Structure formats: structure tokens, C-alpha cells
Amino acid sequence: MAKKIIYTTLIILFLISLALWSPWEEYDISFARIFGVKEIEHLSGLELFSLKGELELYLDDEYKGSITPEGGSFVLDDIEKGNHILRISRKSDNPNEYFEVVKSVNFVENLKVVLAYELGPSEEFSQGHIFYARKNSIANPDSTTAMLNINCQGCEEANVFLDEIEIGKTPVEGYQLDLGKVHNLKLEKQNYEDLEFTILPDSQEDRDKLKGIELFIDVNLFLIPIEIEQETVINNTE
Amino acid sequence: MLVNDLKQTIKYPTSLIVRGADVIGIELAKSLLDQGGYVIIVDFPSDYTKQMISELSDYSLFTFIDFSKLPLLEDSLRRLDYVFYLNHKIENLEEEISSQEFLEFSKFLDLVLGLAKNFEAKFLATTSIKAHQYMFAKSDYEVNLDSKTEIHKVYTETEIQRYIESLTLEYIQKSTLDARIIRLGEIIGKDIEYNPDSTVGRIIKDGLVEDEITIYGDGLQSEYYVHIQDAVYGIIKAQFTKNTRGEIFSLCYEFEITSLSIAYKINEFIDPPKEIVFSSEEESEDIPLRLYTPAPNLMRIGWKPRVKFSRALKQTFEYVQKLLEFKEEMIEEQFEQRITEKHKKKKKQTGLKDFLRNIFFVPSESEANDSEFDDEQGALSRLIAERKVQENGRKGSILLATQELRKQNKRQFKKKRSITFKISNFITRKFDNFTKKFDLLRYITIKQFIFLLGMFVGVVFIYINVFAPVISFGRHMFVAYMIAEDIEENIKIGDYVEIQTYFENLSAEITAGNQKILSFRKVLKNWNLYAEFLENYNALYQGVKLLDEGISDSYYGTENTVKYVESFDPQIVYKPSGTSLLNVKNSENYSELISNIKSKSQIVGGGIEKINKGIQELEELNMSPVNENLGNKYQKFLSNIKTIRDKYELYYKISRIIPELVGTNQSRTYAFILVDTSYYLPAGGTPTSLVLITFKDGGIQEISTQVLTEQSFDLSNTDPILIEEINLVSSSLIDTSSLDFNKLFYLQQGDLYLDEISRLIYEQKGKTLNGIFIFDSSFLQELMKIVGTLEIKNITFDETNLIVNMDLLMQNTLSKKEVLNDITALSTQAVLNDLDTNIGQFSNIFQNAQNNKDVIYKFYNTDLTTTYESSDNLASVSQDFINIIAVADLDNYQGLEIPSIRSEVDVYIKDDLSSRKTVTVYLNDLRNLDTLSICLPNGVTNFSFREEDRANISESFGQLKTCIKFIDFESEKVSFSYDSPYIENSDYDYSLGLRKQPGLAMQYELVIRSEEGKIGDYTEGGFVNKNQVSYSDTLKTDKIFTVEIE
Questions:
Q1: Among partner residues B470, B472, B960, which is closest to A236 by beta-carbon distance?
Q2: Could you list the residue range(s) of the whole structural domain that residue A84 is in?
Q3: Minimum-distance CB partner of A137 among B470, B512, B518
Q4: Facing residues of B528 across strands?
Q5: Do A138 and A113 share a structural domain?
Q6: Interatomic CA distance for residues B681 and B740, integer angstroms
Q7: B928 CA: distance to closest CA in chain A (Å)
Q8: Are A102 and B603 inside 8 Å of each other by CB?
Q9: pLDDT averaged over consecutive 10-residue blocks of chain B (1046 residues)?
Q10: ipTM of this predicted complex?
Q11: B666-867 architecture in CATH?
Q12: CA angle in degrees (0–180, nearest 5) for B384-B389-B393
């Protein structure tokens, strides 16, 4: 009887230890992994457009490539999902001549991060946008909308127009974006150049991948330089 | 039916008793059945057999088969544990057996041994001691093995016995069969199968029915005996005892018994005793065997006869006595009936079977002699005949069994050709081979195996998908808890590299826990408790994820800043005797670090935002309902995160400032001027000490200190507008000739005096300033927290007594300035030489000083000018203002305390939003006051003064303001009223700015009243009562009060 109790206790302890260890969790059994190939479902991507000049892209401080406006877009397809540091700089003969964009961006599997920039000598004289996503684990996967957040760097209170309807001022948080069609987004602010672009993929199949996803758009607006006029200064010394 | 019965044997220990339909076999079967085993008896199905096995009719785990069914056992049985081959009984030792019979018998024995071997059963064969004795004595052995013998001898029963033993031993040697041989003595006792031809049987019969007991020979022929119960017990003992493989034992009383002893014993049972006579005739089985040595007795393994020989003999005597008395008539009737039936059957014989059967089963007329039945001992003869029938039946049955085996092999061969059989056989064979390797699976059927396999898969599935995730979730939470503890430890030691790693791990654990919870979602989603738990855990998950990302981003963005601060080491040296008190030894180039700071610090803002969002998510969780201790730990954890956030916020601020502050590829020069507030002036106090620092490529290129006096700079080129501004508050008229450096600090507008000082420094030293800082002695006293205790001119200075101890030096103003210059230099050295340690504290001190206007600064030619506006220009931010300016008499020291002043302002707003104000300033605490000026915006009118003040008032008009100056104070207060026009503003109805003079503590009471209309929105901190709002406080810095009137 004592032996039975001891054996039973040992078996229970073993099962609990095995459950604590759970080695099967560490093994992702799939055909792709067996053949040493990364599964595409776990990868994300990036697409960079240059609005002016040659832009260089660094991912986690590693140089990845460059693109010019004439070159279309620079695409990276094999980025591991998760958080990465993006740095975009404009090629020039003099260091520190142009503003550098440095961003921490979350990459979601099967979704591309899209960037388009024109980099000037400082942040105020640069413009562009970056479009990325974040997964919400308890979001309803059958939802037909995605949550949209818009942030304007250095240009708060910019007016936001979605399909020509004003939806508010930046920062916009938690706007339910209909995934049924492509949308046109426009940002306006006094003394800044307007920025307008389309968001969401063309095909419904690609848009459906965004269900339950939280979308982020970070925008930089170009500050319009003021014209200096000669003015008569009134000296009030009384 | 038989086959299905036998398949059930797999559940029970199974025993096979061959030739078991006799007393020993039945007793053996009972013992095995009582122990819960399954018993199969193989024998000839005669009436006698049926009678014997009827005693087992109450047992369900019993099967009887005849010999011909034995070949079926190989395929039908799933389990066989024990085989008993009972061949100890011999009716006639000299009975001849044909070679054919011998061959068939040997095949049959081989079949049984093979069966035992295949099932790895334990085998026990019983033979007769007497046969063994007979064999040695009668030299049958010699006859049969003598190759010179010309005539072929036939086999006898004794040879059968020998063959059994030989073949069994051969199986033991050449295979894995676990077998033993038991030689039984003559069975005696109650209910035995009485043999009147045996020695004991004959003597008992003589004693019962004859007149005398005949002993053949000298009566010293001896035999071995055993009681029937002891025999059964011994057989079981031998079979179940370990380590008896290959052994031959004798199962009998320890000593042989002579026939004469038996005769004497029998005579004890009868009355009167019979005469014992000796006969010289030889009985076939009474042979002297004096030299025979039996096999070791079974007592060796612990068996002991329980019934003494005398008692056993008496039981035998009594049994035979009863047998002779009761069975006579019954046996006679049954025997007659049997003879008749068999005679009839004989006529119907057709095939070989019948032919053989008739040979063996039907007693020949020569054997069944009617004359014998008439004998008064006919009952015994009938018993003998019955047993003979049984024995013959066995032989015949064995023959049939071997024939059946041949036929079966043919059928099997044919059967093997069908696919169904092939598959079934294949599966069964493979399954049996597989299960044999595991003791646990040995005795289960295929169905049971499939069921168990299914159960196992199910249990494993539940274990992996339910049990393990729950346990694993607990592990993740425990590890997360431990990580939180580690984070707290690392905050204490300031290791932010480790903190960042710990947060990564924490996020990984929480994420893993989240996945565990989500794995139950499909099943539990409709359970409210689960949904609530999932929601709460998701908040924790999102919060921690944001924290991880935020801290990671912040760490990445501030990494270079931390490196810069940690490696910044200018090695500033203090030289009291030098022209400049400070010199720099190390001008390291940090340009690469500075360049990285600028670019990477962009993400810190986003990182801190994520940290704040994460904190917000986590603050919404309440852990206290789970466990109070856990709730407290959780709050501590949140507090630790805020500490981390504050640290990164500090470094973020530094990251944004440093690149512009220290410059890259260009020099940056900054001036730091200490003003002594013991002489209160509009700009804070009198200038005392100047420190100039030039940065290049992130390092300090040059540093110098200087004591400031009135004549430190040439003010001959000062803009006349500044002199006008100075005269607004000066008691005497100042012009270019009387203007000195101290007078510059009469300016109330920061832009004016800061710009002028910059121009003067450039003029005198050729250095273009990128920034200028004016700080007062309160700020310097705060800096002593970093510096520690200093001893200068035998006076100790620390954070508590700097200003007080300055008093000791008041006798000599220059000496005081020199001491202050020393303290300024040493403070600068302490802060810069150990920037890594001091930067946090310095930043706090600076922030507080900025809030209290203990430091005023302005930047030039850097991007910092757009971020940090000059901090003393109230007129630029508020259109209506009251500047209360006190100017000390510089020739008289004012005292120990920080100068303070109290004012009351009453604002009465009329319908048209113009206002009537009354300003009262109390001068009780202000000593050595030279002038008190109250500057107002231009456009104010309708002044009214108190009579006692009129003589001491002058009005001055400057750039955008009008100043009312009071001199020669006779009362403790001054007061006046005036009208202000309405100043249009789209944001509010009325606003008023109060300026705080640096270095001067100002208490105020402000009341804003409206003629009509209630007070609506107003600046925080006021007390509203219908149409008025009141404020009462100490003015720490410039403040603007706004009011909406409904």
C-alpha cells in the first residue's frame, strides 16, 4: 500500500513538473520548420516611398537599402513580427544636413508597414506618413471595422478629413474605420501644407486581414515658411 | 462456444490439467478454482469423467475438453499459466503398449509440452515412484536399450513414465520451458481410486473379505505412499514454488513402508485380526527394491505430509470397506446396461473412428467375463473395469487427438490461404508478440487494448490541452511575479540595462499566459467569469506590452544620452590662487555620441507615451480582491514603473537639450551670473560672480570665473532706452556717466538686461554667448545639497546656512563676493565633474529654481531659443499687469532674511469692462528700501493717492508702461487707485498679470469684482462669491489671472 502511495505521488509530481515545463510549447511543428524555411504567416513586410531625394532605410540599426522617387518603392518582405526600430535618413554629402526619422514600429504578421517621406533640414520642414498596425488579442475577428488612430508629430490639432468628411482633430484615437472600401485621408493645419493620401489595400481580401486590427498613422506636416514683410515699428515710450 | 469461453481466460490465471478427471485432478482443480483461477481439464469424456467433473459444476471458470480438442487450445487460448500433466496412475506396470501407441502418446506429450512452452506456462508432470522403482528392478530399461537384442521388445507403461520424464527434461534443457517432475507415491486415503491389485489394496481386501492376509515373499518389499490430500497440496506447492525448474521430487512419506507393516496395521483395524501367511509366489508388482534411492523428497521445498500414515491407512481401509458394502448393486445394474449398449454399438461400426473406438472402448469378451460378475467381489471388479474403460478411453482419445491435430494442420493450411484469415492471424500474431513484451499488456484482449489506447490518447489530449496549460499559466504568473521583484531590486541600484531586459522577459511571460487563456476561448467564451477574467487579463497584457515597448524605445532613445552623461568627465580643477578659480583638464570629443543622441531621442517621446498608456491600463486593474498582499505588491510595482518613467523623462529632456546645448562641430559659450539677493533689485540682486563655460564637440573646452563689481564692464555704449528703463525705478537720476554694472540690474525686463550683459561680455571678452543664466543665492544654497559642506575663510557653508553665514562676511563686501565666487566655482566643479551622479538632482533643483524665478535665462543662436523662452517678460504675455518693484539701498545691507513684501490689489470691473484698481503695498518686512515702484501698462488714468504719499510720488513713463515710484517712506504702506481701460481679448473678459520680482518673497491678496454679472470661469485657486473672486497666496513666479463674467 505504501509503495502504491509513493508511486502515485511520484507520478503526480512528474506530471505536474512536465506540465510546468511543457516542452511541446517550444516546438512549433510545421512542415516549413521541418525543412528549415520560415513560414510566411509569421513574417511581416515594409514598403518605403520617397517623396524627395534618396532615402536610406535602417532596420534595428542595420542598413537595408535605399530608394528614390523615381524608383517606385522599396520593399522588404522578411521582417519578423514584433517591435522594430526604423530609421530613415536622406542621403547627402554633409552629415546631419537633413532631418532623420527614427521610429519604433510594431510589425504584425501578414501586414505591411507603409512609409512615405520627404525629409528636410529639420522636422518642421519634413513631411510624410507611416502606416502600421497592432493586433488586439480579444478583438472580434468577425468585425467589419478596424480601429484607426492618427497622430500628427509636431502639429497637434490638425484637422482630419476622411473621404472629405471631417472626423476630428489630431490626435484621433479609436475611430472605427469601415473595411469595406478604400478611404481617402487628408490632414490640414494652418501654416502647414496639406497632406492627402489613400489608406487601406485595394482588394477586399487584403482589407479583411485587418479585421480586429488597430491601425496607426503617424503624420508629419510640412511647415510653410512665412514671408517677411517690411513693417513700420511704432515706438511707444510714453 | 468453447472458443469464446477460452478467450475469456485472458482475464484469469489459467491452468490446464491433462488427464485431470480423477480424484487428484478434481481436488487440484478445486484448489485452483478457489484461488480465482480458470481451469481446463483435458480427459476422456466417459460417464466416470462426467461424474467426477460434476463436482465442479458450481464453478463458472471451469471448462472440460476431451483430448481431441487439445490442438484447438493453441489458437483459442489467450493465456496459459500452469500445466499439470498427471501421469502418475498406472493400473498395470507390465501392460504392453504398441509402438504405434507409444508414438501417438509421444506426439501428444510433445503437443502439451509445446503448448506450455509457447504460452510460457509453468509445467508440472506427475509420474509414479513405483514405476521408477519397477523400471530399475525389472531391467526393462536394459532390455529396451540393449542394441544387441534380436527381438524387438514392446513398450510398457513404465517406459511411458520414463519417456515423460526424459522429454520434459529435454524441453527444460533445450528451451525456456519452466518444468518440474513430481514422482508420486502410492495414493492412499479416503475417496481414492481403489486398486485391489496394489499391495495395500490387496492387503486391505484380504483383511476385509479373505480369511487370511497373504504376504508375497518375505514381506519386506517396500513402497512409498502419500495421502491424497497431501499429494494435491504437494503438487500445488511444487508448481507454485520458485526455483524448482528442472527439479525432480518425490512426493511421499519420508520413509518407505513394507508390506508386512501394512499387514500388521490392517490387522489393528479388524476384529478379530486375520492370520498373516507368507506366499512364495511372485506378484507381478511386488519386487524387492532394497537398493532404490528415490528423488529428493518434496519436503526440501517446505512441503510436509499433514496426515500420518497410520491415519491415512485407516481412512483407506474404511473407504474400501464402505465401497465393498454400498456399491455392489448399483455397479451391477450400470455395468449390465453398459455392456448391452456397447454390444449394440459394435454392430454399427463404420469408419476408422468407430473401428478404433470399438477396439478401445468396448471390453472384449475375454476381458468382460460374465463369470466375474457373479463373483462376490464383483463390485470391485466393476470399479476396476470402469477405470479400465476410462484408461482405454484416454488412449483412444489421445490417438484421436493426434489425428485431429493432423487434420487441423491441413485445415489450417487451407485456412491460411484466405485473406481474412491471413489478416486476422497477422493482427493476432503481431498483437500477441507485442503484448508479450510488456507484463501489463500480457493478458488483455485486442478490444481492451484498443479501448485502453483510446483512453490513453484522450487522457493525453486533456493533459496537453487543459491540465498543462493551466499549470503552465500558473508558472508564467509566478515567474512574472519574481521578475517584478527583480525589477524593484534593479531600480534601487539604477541598472536600467537589466530593467529593460527584465521587462522583455515580463512581457514574454504575460504574453505566454495570455495565449494559454485564449486557448480556452472557443470552449468557455459564453462563461461570464471567464469573459471577465479574459478582459482583465487582456488589460494586464496590453499594459505590460506597452510598458515593454515603451521602456525598450526609451532605452534605445536615451542609451547614448546615458553614455554621454556617464562618460562626461571634464576633470575641472579648482585653483584658488589662479586668475580663474577653475581650469578644465579633459576636453574630450563626444561629437559622435551627440549626433546619435539627436537622432535617436525622437522615439523617446513615443516611448514615454507608451509607458504612460501602459500605466493607465494597469491602474485600471485592481488586484486587491484577489489577495490583499498581492494588491499591495501590485501597487508597489506600479510605483516602480513610475520611477522608471520619471527617469526616462529626465533623460528625454536632457536628450532634447544636450545636442543644442553643447553643440556639434561648433562651440557654445554660456555665462552664469550669481546675484546676491541680500541687495534686492528688480533683476534679483547685485551681480557677484561670473562663470563662463565654452563647450565644443560635447566636451568643455574652456571654463573661467570672475568676481563681478560695478566696474566689471564698460557701459558707455549702453542703449539710452535701457537708462530710461533704469530711471523708472531708480531713486536718483542715472545717466551714462553714472551708470555702472550694478545699475543694469535695476531693469525689470529680462530681455533687456540679459541682452545687454551678452553684449558687454562680447565686447569685453570677444565671446558670443549662446545663453546666459542669472541665478540667485537661494539657488546656490540649493546647489550645496550636491556640493556638500565647504569651508572657506574658516567659515563652514552648507545647504542650511549659506545665506545666514554670508552675514558674517558683510563687513567687507568684496570679501563676501570673493567667497560667493569661490562657492560658485566649487559648486560648478562638483556638478560637472560628476555629472552622472548629480544630473538628476541638479535637474530638480534647476526646475524648482525656474518655477520660483530663482533662475532666469535666455538662449541665443540655438534651436533652444524656440523651446525655452526667456523667462522674465510679463508684459509680453499679459496686456494688463501690475509690477511691484522694490529697490534696495545698495549702500546699506538689508538683513538676514530673504526680503519679502505683501500687497493687496482690488479690481473693480465696470459694465464696459474697464476697471478701477486699488493697489496697497505693505512695507513692514522690507528693510533698507530705496524705492518702491509700481509699473502699470500705458493708458491708465485717474490716479488717486493718499495724502501722506503724495509728496513721495513720481510718475515715469517708459516703453509700454507707466511707473509710480515711491521714495522716502514714512508709513508702513503705500496705496493708490487708478483706472484701466478695457483691453479687448477674445479668450476671456478680463485678465491681470502680477510680476514676481526675483529674490523677493511676495505675498498677495487679489479681489476681482464685477459691477454686474456673475463670475463665470476664473483662474484656479480662487474663492468665488457671486460677483467676486478672491485670491490669497505667495507669488512664486509671474502669474496671470483671468475671469469670465456672465
A1: B960
A2: 41-119
A3: B518
A4: none
A5: no
A6: 14
A7: 30
A8: yes
A9: 63 91 92 93 87 88 86 79 90 76 85 91 93 73 48 71 91 91 92 84 88 86 91 94 92 91 90 86 54 85 92 92 70 57 50 55 44 50 72 76 71 65 78 76 77 92 88 91 90 85 91 86 80 85 90 90 91 86 87 85 87 90 70 86 90 88 86 89 90 92 91 89 88 89 88 91 92 90 88 82 74 77 91 90 89 88 66 63 88 69 92 89 82 87 82 69 80 88 76 87 91 84 89 90 86
A10: 0.81
A11: 3-Layer(aba) Sandwich (3.40)
A12: 150
